[in-house]
Amino acid sequence: MTPDHRTLAALAREVEEGDPIAWGEVALDRETVYQMIASQITEVFARYEAQRVPEERQMVIALATVVKLTVENFVLHQRLMRGE
């Protein structure tokens, strides 16, 4: 069962406490960003549930999504470090 987006955002904020995000000059409100992203991700996984994708398959999809987002973040960070 996919958690609601508020729960997902709250859990993600807790994770950030251990690995802070450099919000710096981001012109968006932290809470708004968490709620927006969590809502989008919740919608994606709700579709998988509606399609009756088995839970173990949903976990693989979730982990693959985390890897993709982490790689994207890594590449962006590398580009920022080079001043691009």
List keywords for this structure.
mainly alpha; 2 domains; 84 residues; 74% helix; single chain
Blueprint of the fold:
Elements: H1 5-18, H2 30-50, H3 55-81
Helix pairs in contact: 1-2
What does this structure look like?
With 84 residues, the chain is mainly alpha-helical. The protein has 2 domains: 1-53; 54-84. 74% of the residues lie in helices and 0% in strands. The chain contains 3 helices and no strands. Helix 1 (5-18) crosses helix 2. The longest helix has 27 residues, at 55-81. The mean pLDDT is 87.
Assembly annotation: single chain
- Low-confidence runs of at least 5 consecutive residues: none
CA-based gyration radius:
15 Å
List SSEs in N-to-C order: HHH
Count of alpha/pi helices: 3
- The share of residues in helices is over 70%
Mean pLDDT level: 87
In whole angstroms, the N-to-C terminal distance is 41 Å
DSSP, total strands:
0
The domain count comes to 2
Structural class computed from helices and strand pairing: mainly alpha
Q: What would the principal axes of the Cα set say about the shape?
A: globular
- Percentage of residues in DSSP E strands: under 5%
Largest sheet: none
